[in-house]
């Protein structure tokens, strides 16, 4: 491994680590496919607000987060638009194609029936936008995991009928995780329909969110990262990837920092691997492989909100250049500087094209 971390200039330090403005190359030798781009429909936002304002709302920090986001009108305008205005903005930002994910917390904070029917509605709208602008949009099917049968049916419909490119889960649902056996039919369906699952963060569940919310850390500063860590490591240690070896998982934000710790995860694996008495006394699960194996075999990561050359090169080095995929995190972290910074990365043309274009095409089956 050999790469250099440049010393930040005075201007960089003043602005943090974000790149200095450069012009965007309008004809780069690759397409720029952004793979964690958020959208929403008004019906889901209304259902979230209705539940939050009902006499006895569930104690769910993700639902409260949805309520907070509902008050940010300019953000909501951008989320709701999957038409020509968004495409004009993509042109400004230098993005050829967006992979659209229903924004967190989505349908997962709703009651099972309502969540299931609103997932269907969202998927119909998204499929329509993708049909209308096939060169600019692709989409992931959304499903309500709190209704397992409905989720399986919607994954099938999304992949077989609507032609989506994978599935999105906004992580836990009222503290439940896909690693619990009753949700494994969902994993089975994802594998059967060849749908990569993108697990996008939400705020940690009520059982452990208080110390985060107390300090303002529920979101990108810590809660989102630790929450997807829980989901990913839970899936690995549950044996889900041994049972479903073709189950493909994608996580954002540089793999929520987990790639930095693979050495220690392998070293300390026996803390949970093969241990009796975990998960409420369920039979012990003995993994077939070291933790790092699953990161190099079943898991891909995206660079959403983390357009930072050293971290991207590190992850390409330890996971393989085929495992790191570009994402912007529009509209939350849209940045006029971002793609120009990627264009300027000191990286081979082959790896740059994999990062910006071909890894996304392969993982999300964009060229079918
Ligand atoms: Ca995001």
Q: Explain this structure to me?
A:
The chain has 368 residues and is an alpha/beta fold. The chain is built from 17 helices and 9 strands. It has helices spanning 10-14, 42-52, 61-70, 73-80, 84-93, 112-132, 148-161, 184-192, 206-215, 223-238, 240-243, 253-256, 262-267, 291-297, 309-319, 338-344, 349-363, and strands spanning 33-39, 97-102, 137-139, 141-142, 167-169, 197-199, 249-251, 299-302, 324-325. A 6-stranded parallel β-sheet has the order 4-5-6-7-8-9. Strands 1-2-3 form a 3-stranded parallel β-sheet. Strand 4, helix 7 (148-161) and strand 5 (167-169) form a beta-alpha-beta unit. Helix 2 (42-52) crosses helix 3. The longest helix is centred in the first third of the chain and has 21 residues, at 112-132. The model is unreliable at 1-9 (pLDDT under 50).
Provide the CATH top-level class: Alpha Beta
Please state the second-level CATH architecture: Alpha-Beta Barrel
Number of helices: 17
**Reading side by side through the largest sheet, how are the strands ordered?**
4-5-6-7-8-9
Query: Could you say how many structural domains there are in total?
Result: 1
Q: Tell me what portion of residues adopts beta-strand conformation.
A: 5-15%
Radius of gyration: 20 Å
Average pLDDT, rounded to a whole number, is: 94
Q: Structural class of the helix and strand makeup?
A: alpha/beta
Give me the CATH fold name: TIM Barrel
Q: How many beta strands in the DSSP annotation? A: 9
| N→C terminal distance | 34 Å
Helix content: 40-55%
The major pleated sheet works out as:
6 strands, parallel
Small molecules (ligands, ions, cofactors) in the structure: calcium ion
| Overall outline | globular
Order of helices and strands: HEHHHHEHEEHEHEHHHEHHHEHEHH
What's the CATH H-level superfamily name?
Answer: Metal-dependent hydrolases
Q: Low-confidence segments, ≥5 residues, pLDDT <50?
A: 1-9
């Amino acid at each position: 491994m050999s790469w250099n971390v440049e010393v930040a200039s005075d201007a960089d330090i003043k602005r943090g680590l974000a790149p200095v403005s450069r012009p965007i190359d309008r004809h780069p030798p690759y397409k720029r496919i952004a793979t964690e781009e958020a959208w929403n429909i008004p019906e889901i936002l209304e259902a979230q607000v209705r539940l939050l304002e009902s006499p006895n709302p569930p104690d769910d920090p993700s639902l409260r987060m949805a309520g907070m986001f509902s008050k940010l009108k300019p953000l909501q305008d951008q989320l709701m638009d999957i038409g020509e205005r968004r495409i004009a903005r993509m042109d400004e930002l230098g993005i050829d194609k967006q992979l659209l994910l229903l924004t967190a917390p989505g349908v997962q904070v709703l009651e099972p029936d309502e969540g299931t029917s609103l997932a269907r509605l969202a998927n119909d709208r998204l499929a329509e936008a993708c049909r209308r602008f096939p060169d600019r949009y692709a989409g992931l099917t959304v499903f309500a995991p709190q209704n397992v049968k409905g989720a399986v049916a919607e994954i099938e419909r999304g992949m077989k009928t609507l032609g989506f490119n994978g599935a999105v889960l906004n992580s836990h649902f009222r503290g439940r995780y896909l690693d619990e056996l009753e949700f494994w039919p969902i994993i089975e369906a994802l594998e059967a329909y060849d749908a990569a699952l993108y697990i996008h963060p939400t705020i940690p569940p009520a059982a452990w969110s208080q110390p985060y919310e107390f300090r303002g850390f529920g979101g990108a500063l810590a809660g989102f990262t630790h929450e997807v860590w829980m989901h990913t490591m839970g899936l690995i240690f549950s044996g889900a990837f041994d049972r479903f070896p073709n189950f493909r998982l994608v996580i954002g934000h540089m793999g929520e920092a987990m790639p930095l710790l693979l050495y220690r995860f392998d070293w300390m694996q026996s803390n949970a691997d093969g241990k009796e008495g975990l998960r409420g006394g369920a039979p012990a699960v003995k993994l077939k492989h070291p933790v790092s194996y699953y990161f190099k075999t079943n898991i891909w990561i995206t660079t959403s909100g983390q357009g930072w050359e050293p971290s991207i090169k590190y992850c390409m080095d330890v996971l393989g250049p085929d495992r790191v995929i570009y994402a912007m995190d529009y509209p939350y972290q849209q940045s006029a500087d971002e793609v120009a910074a990627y264009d300027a990365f000191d990286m081979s043309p082959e790896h740059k094209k994999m990062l910006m274009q071909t890894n996304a095409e392969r993982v999300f089956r964009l060229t079918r």
